[in-house]
Amino acid sequence: MTDLPNPKLDDHPPTNTEKDPDNWVSGDDPMTGAQASYLTTLAEEAGEAPPPAELSKAEASKRIDALKAKLALD
User: Is residue 74 part of a domain?
Assistant: First the structure.
């Protein structure tokens, strides 16, 4: 039997949890309700206008990241 690496035992396992929104398969889909709600909350906290309803998932994700950085939430 071959000993296969076990990522659960690795001190620094590889990750795919962060992927550039431009590379998302569903990035062109409309933003989710959760994204819209969170983005609206962040925009209010940052003193910005609410997001347009026609944002894609990828665009919403990028705006969320930008607002979190602006508000120093990361």
Answer: yes
